[in-house]
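User: For my dataset I need records formatted as: sequence, then C-alpha cells, nothing else. Please produce one.
Assistant:
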Amino acid sequence: MSERNWERELVERLAQFANPHSPNRAALAHLRRGLDGPLDYTLARVGWLFSSVPDSKDDLLLQSSVLAAGLFAWVKGDCPQAPGVNFGAAFGARLTQDKKQQREKRFIDLLDTDPEELHYKLRQALALIARDAVGVDWVLLIRHLARWGHPDRWVQKEWARGFWAASEAATTFEHAQSVSD
C-alpha cells in the first residue's frame, strides 16, 4: 500500500466492514468501543487494519485514523464517503433556518474543542450528519483530525467555511422556493 493512498484504502476497508449484506460486526464493535478507550485497546483487537498508517510525530496519523475508524463504525456506514465534503460542510448541509440555529451553537462548541475531547463531540455531530443522510470525505477527515491541534487552527477555519457556506446555500434555496410558491 503506497503512502499516498493509505487513507483511501483504509476508508474502503471500513466501507466493506459496514456492507449491509455481509457486515463485519465484530470489527465495527471493536472500533466503536475504541472511541472511549485507550489506543492500545483498538490496536490489540483490529490493529491489522492500521498496519499501513505511516509513522508520524507523536503517532498523530495513527490516532486520527483510529478515531475516524471508530466514528465510521459509530454510524455503521450510514455516512458514506463523499469526496471533497469536509466535516463542516456535511454538518451544515440540508439545514432549514431553524435547524441551522440549533446546530450553530453545537458547531461553534465543536470548533473550540480540545483534541482530548474531540472524539465525544464528533460522535454526537456525526450522528446528526448520518441521520440527515449526508456523506463526508473520510479521507479528508483523517487528515484534518491529525492536524486539529495546529497553532493556525486552519482545520477549524476550513470547517467553519464549509458549515456556513452549506447553510447559506440551503437558506438561499429555501428563500427561492418560498418566492416561487
